[in-house]
Structure formats: C-alpha cells, structure tokens
Records
---
Amino acid sequence: MTAVPDRAKRPGPTIVTRLMENRHLGWAALAVGLVAPFVIATPYAMNIMTSAVIFVMLAVGLNIVVGYCGLLDLGFAAFFAVGAYTSGLLATRLSWPLLATVPAVIIATALAGVIIGGPTLRLRSDYLAIVTLGFGEIVRIIANNLEVTGGPSGIYGIPGLFGAEAADPVVFYYAALVIVAVAVLLAARLGRSRLGRAWRFVREDEDAAEAMGVHTYRIKMAAYIAGAIWGGLAGVLFAAQLSAISPASFTFLQSALVLMAVVLGGMGSTPGVVIGAVVISLLPEILRDLADYRFFVFGVLLIVMMIVRPQGLWPHRSRETARTAARSGES
C-alpha cells in the first residue's frame, strides 16, 4: 500500500497553479488585445484578429457545455448558424439594426437549445456526441435548402454592428473585443456560481449527483441553453464581420475546431479555453508560409501537445491539484 505523504512533504503549488490565482492576468490579456491594433494595423491582420476574438466566444460557449457539465457536443456549429441566420434575416429582410437583433438571437438560440437538447440530454457519452453531430448537420442542411435562408448562396448585405455597410476594421475589432471580454467574464462567473458547481458535480459523477438530489436533466439543459446563447451571439459578430453568411461556414469542421480549442486549452478552465482558441485560430495563419504543409504541421503540433500535456495548456485548478496529488501519492 502506498503511504500518504505528510502535509509537510507535499509539493507546493505548481507554476501554472500560481499563475491561475493571479487575477491580474486577465486584465493583462485584455490590455494586450487593446494595444494589438497599434502594433499590427494592416486590414488583413485586423480581420484575422477579429476572427480570433469571435472564435474565443465560440470556445467559451462550448466550454460551458463540455468543460463545465461534461456534455460532449459535436454539433455546436448549429447554434453558431442559428445566431448568424437569425440576425442576418432580421437585418436584411426586416431592416432591423444588427444590435436590435440580439434579443431575438438569444430567444432563437435558447429555443434551439431546448429543441435539440430536449430529446438528447438523456443520453450520455458517445451516444450524445453522435446525436448532436446529427443535429448540427440537420441545421446546416436546412439552411442549405430553404429559400428564405438564401440556399447555398446564403445571405448578403448584412449591415455592421453600428449600421455601416463596411465598418472600419479597427472599430469593429474593438467592439468585438469588448463584447467578448464581457461574455468571457460572465462565463467565468457562471462557472463559479452555485449552478456552475452543480454542473461540475454532474460532470464528475452524474449518478452520485442525482442520488444527492440534483435534478441532472435540468442542470444539463441549463448548460446546453447557456452554451447555445454564447454560440448564437458569436454568430451575430460573425455575420457583422463578413456582411455575408452561407451554410459552408457552419460545417462539422467548425464544431471540431471549437472542441479542439476547449480540449487544448483545458476543459473547464476559462483562461485555458481563451488561450486554446487563440492558438487554434492563429496558428494556421502563422504557418501560412508552409503553404500546403501548414495544416499537416498544425496537426502534428496538436498531437505532440496532447501527448506532452494532456490536461491542456492551462488546466482548471481542481484538475491540476488532483494531478499533483496523484503524482505525490505515486511517489
């Protein structure tokens, strides 16, 4: 039997754990985002940075579902599409200001979460993943075939956030950065709330949570709806950035990339997911000089990362502490 090490012999917190306890790092990351346009001010670079910011919001939304509650969702792009199409249709067909479509997007994505999650959240693990993958493809196919959504051509002429047809990329970047920063803060607060603790309880052991009186179905539905709303709001920013959307932007690959960002950053860790999203969105652009081999190198780097650090770039404190304790017990 392995002896439990004395308290005095237990190793102190790791560097990662100490960094995670420093709340000033979030403000430092926001400061870097605010200063970045002054360092890289080309229109192409601004568009790439804006796409990375929107991708962060997508990853944070999926982290609520996968990281907090442990629900493996392979069709998260469906909510991304619902938000983008709801906003685009109201803005182009009914001439609504794009910001005025936000309440309608929240309602539409919440309803989509109930419709999709209602019959599926009683499933677990692989079965849930397969069903959500199917729903994601159903939403894309519907958008591809309906006349009101523009079919394969999609919707064009979507106005910017402030009503301009072609807003200044720097102005739009700052607007998106502020919106996403608020969304990230809300997601982090939600994870530390009573509901967030219930999500983590369900993630760790659903049967034990149900035995302790937690209504697991309602808890999982709340996580699914919250993640759907985050994904829908990211769709609004996406539609405003490109001023055009089509079904080709909401494929399974998009869902896989968002899930990859959550796993790479550290499931359940908001700072880790933000870092993972930035890496996933920017690394292919950094490797662009490698031409046809950039996605091969990108995949190899991800595989190496998962082998070297399977818990993620910035794991949640509880998981890092458990991993440290396990190593101490083995020694």
Note: The chain has a mean pLDDT of 83.
---
Amino acid sequence: MKKSKINVEVTLDDHKVPEEITWSAPDQNQLNESAKAMLLSFFDRNSRETLKIDLWTKDMQVVEMDRFFYQTLRSMVDTYFRATSNQKLAREMQQFVQYFGEQTEIIRKEKE
C-alpha cells in the first residue's frame, strides 16, 4: 500500500498569531508553497464529529478572506454533489454561494 504525506508548517509570532503558512505535497511536486490561510477538517471515524483547524496570517486582507471563502464554498458544493448526488440540495447551496459572492463583491450581481 502506498502512502502519501502533506506537510503544513506555520510560523507564529510572539503572541502565537500565524505570520507564515507553508505546505508541501511531494507526490504532487508541490514544495514549500506559501499560503495566507488554510481550512482543514477531519471527520473523526469514532466520534463522528468534525475536527477543524482554521488559520490565517495576520497580513490576510478582508477582501482576500472573502475570495477564499467564496472559492472554498463553491468547491464544497461541488464536493458535496459528487459525494451524494443530491442535486436539489447542491443547487440550493450554490444559490447561497452566488449570494455570498455578490454580497462580498467577488462576483457581479446577476440581473433580475
């Protein structure tokens, strides 16, 4: 059985606030890639609870966080649909993502 590793390194300031986030995925030829934010979730096999690590660097701007969340939400809708084939709920979730994108001005408002 093949194993693969993804490594995340976080540099903290004196107050334990992230200053830098880097990650590597050697199997994908991604080495020491810089990031301003990360969201990591694990669904625990035994407790059936979601364990999360959400980090962002202190130089992350609000407009960048808006874009990060918009793109993450879009991706989550796609993943949810691929995993469940629940087209109705995925479509409704996508409507919220559209609303979020418009409200944060990441995307232009659709004409009514």
Note: Strands lie at 7-12, 18-25, 30-35, 37-43, 50-56.
---
Amino acid sequence: MSIPVDPSKLEDELNRFGQAAFLLTVSDDQTSHVAHMTFRFQEGALCCSISKTAARNVEVRPKVVLLWPPYENNGYSMIVDGECSIQGEELKVVPTSGVLHRPATPEASGELDCGNDCAPLGS
C-alpha cells in the first residue's frame, strides 16, 4: 500500500534519513540502473552530482525513484518518486510523491502474508 504525501515534508525527513540515497533510473534496454548518490535539498528539489549513466537515462525517461534504506532496525525506508532533469553539472529531482514503508510483521497482521506498514512522510 502506498499513501500519497505532500513532498513539502521531504526536507524534514532528510534530517532523519541523511543525504545519501539510491537513485533508480531505467536504461535503454529497460533494465534498472541504481546509483548511490549524495543529495542536497535546494528550493524544493533534490540535487546531486551528475552520473553519466543516470544522465543518459533521464534524458529519455525522466521519471525516477529515490530510495533511502531504514536508518534503524525494523525501521521505515523512504521512497520518493520524482521528475529528474540535467541542470549543468548536476541532476535535479523534483519530488512528486513519497512514502515511508516497511513490511508488517506476521505477528502484527496475524497472517503469513504480512502485507506492509506504510506511513506518509512527516508522520
């Protein structure tokens, strides 16, 4: 389950999750490209140094995903969807939605298929 959230809460979440995240783009052969990047928040966007492969991918397919792994055991991952563009020597991602996500434990759901446990950004 994904809960749409207001990306304006993202800067607060970056204080908890940190600046390093995985940038996921799609290559010409429709495979995923994952790059571990360091982002800074600037005027409502996330910016990072340019990655040649990611830059080539976003020229054709600008929709990207950013993923921050949990910063604590059994914690939430942060997943942000965005539109990416090339701005000089940087990639600029304008967030369109985001979610804090973790799998639910089987004990919490009472079922083998434990589903998930999502929370909107800023919770």
Note: Residues 7-119 form a domain with the Pnp Oxidase; Chain A fold (CATH 2.30.110.10).
